[in-house]
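User: tokens in, sequence out, please.
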């Protein structure tokens, strides 16, 4: 999996590992302990940016993380590729 944010490319084998790699670029990363917390922050950020609710599937953290990356890719916020 790959995500490109502000021209920088991040790679990982899973979406949750990808979150761990990109989490440090947030100014408040010290307040985000894990991938679940990161997803919650991004859901709130999405709502602020778009005025819409980010609809994530029920399931484990990996399932939600993949959906989050796909939604942000569709919005044009980040470039996300599930398979390299």
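Assistant: Sequence out:
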């Amino acid at each position: 999996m790959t995500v490109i944010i502000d021209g920088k490319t991040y790679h990982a084998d899973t979406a949750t590992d990808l979150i761990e790699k990109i989490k440090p670029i947030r100014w408040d990363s010290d307040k985000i302990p894990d991938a679940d917390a990161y997803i919650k922050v991004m859901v709130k950020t999405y709502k602020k940016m778009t005025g819409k609710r980010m609809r994530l599937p029920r399931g484990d953290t990996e399932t939600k993380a993949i959906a989050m990356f796909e939604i942000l890719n569709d919005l044009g916020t980040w470039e996300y590729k599930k398979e390299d």
